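Reply to dn_fold:

You asked what the input looked like. This is it:
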Amino acid sequence: MANKNAAAGWYPDQDPRFLRWWDGTRWTGHTRPNESVLPPPPAQASTIQPQQPQTPTRDPVQSSQTSAPTPTRHRIFGGKKDLETEVERLTLIVDQLGVTERDALVDELTRLRSEVPALRSEHASLLAQVEPLRTEVADLVALRTQAGALQAEVTQLTAQRDVLNAETAELQNLLTQLPAVRAEYDQLRAQIVETRETSILQEVGVYEYQHPLDNAPAYKAKLTGISAQIKDMVKAGTAVQGSTTWTVNGSVSEGKKMVREFSKLMLRAYNNEADNAVRSMKPYALDSSVARLAKARDTISKLGGTMNIRVTDRYHSLRLEELQLTADYLAKVAEEKEREREERARLREEEIARREFEREQERLRKEQSHYQATVEALRQQGDAAGADQAQAKLAEISDALDGITRRAANIRAGHVYVISNIGAFGPDMVKIGMTRRLDPMDRVRELGDASVPFHYDVHAMVFSDDAVGLETSLHHELEDCRVNLVNMRREFFRTAPPRVRDILLRHDASIVHWIEEPEAIEWRQSETTRRQQQEVGVGS
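and this is what came back:
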């Protein structure tokens, strides 16, 4: 146990084998082996409880000096030798108490305590510096992770770059070869004549007559004249020309005979090509036939080049004119047939309307005669009221008969119909026509016969005293929507029905009833059935 305010020094620990350092105020954590017994702290100070409270049972100094008896007072001052011995003993005790080491430790402790505030300040400063560094380290770790992914991406992009570089080099090589390839392509293309009908049809335009004539017989007569000129040139030997100086075995006559025979052979090949073009002529394939015949002439010129055999320009021009007239003739025949077909359809429609008018007039006349007899009979019977009713009905019949007579006389009167067939042509497609029949729905039903998959739906049926003019006005205003730009008698227009309704309203047409959405019952039922069949097929 150490006394409070005792001098700093080494004192016995709880474990007798060790000594613990007392700094003068408290027990420290410094220990060392107990090689000698230390004296107790000075007795004048009051005792305190150490951190490891275990007070020695006896004085360590006395324990170490048991062999030397404590000198008596009279011996302390007995002699010089005794004093020297006592001084040595006290010196030894002081040394054992570690007074010198204690002073050094006190100085060191004082110095360390003076450094503590600076160290604490430095510690706080370092902590303040460490936090940003820790944040920066975390960011660097995240960046290193990202750098790994970027490195992998860079590797992938590098590989792609190498592939693209190789492709670029190959493309560059192809670009250098492109002019030569294009030149070769143009040369080969010039030698090819397109004869495939599908390819020709994809580029076909409106046919233009090369020799405009009035009708098909005129073209026929012109063709007959051209054929006569062709035969005359063949007979005269002016269709093909050849060398006149060619010799065979030194004989000029044999040479001329050989050239003449080869010329006939070449002309036969050329005429076969021309005749085949005439037989298979279609107006839209005229350009292809002309190019093919020109190619045949060039080939003959090349094959007969050694003998200067060639088809004359005049003969070739006649054959080309024959092709053009043949195409014109076929186009005119088709046009006249279409016109005749439309005219027959118009006359048939007119005849049907005329017969309907006659039947209706006959029916009304019979009813008129019947009511006239009824009026006379009722008046003779004295039934004035019944006679008046019959007379009123007779007046209605007379008005109807007059109306039918007027319609029959006015060939421009009739119904303008606006119909569509969504199942056949899709939405936003209407047909606008005119009929003079008493029941215009008969005409609509005829149009929806077996030639189309579904019946037509009526959007509007408008009666007009000038139905022809109203129909023509509608066609003109919808000219930009016309589907067939060649045959104007095809009355189909790609437009929404409401636009037709607006045009009719601008013309003050009496629209009795307008249907915006077509019923198209058969088409809708067919679509529903088809969808159900598909669902069953998918489910199975």
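Confidence is low (pLDDT under 50) at residues 41-77.
Hope that clears it up.
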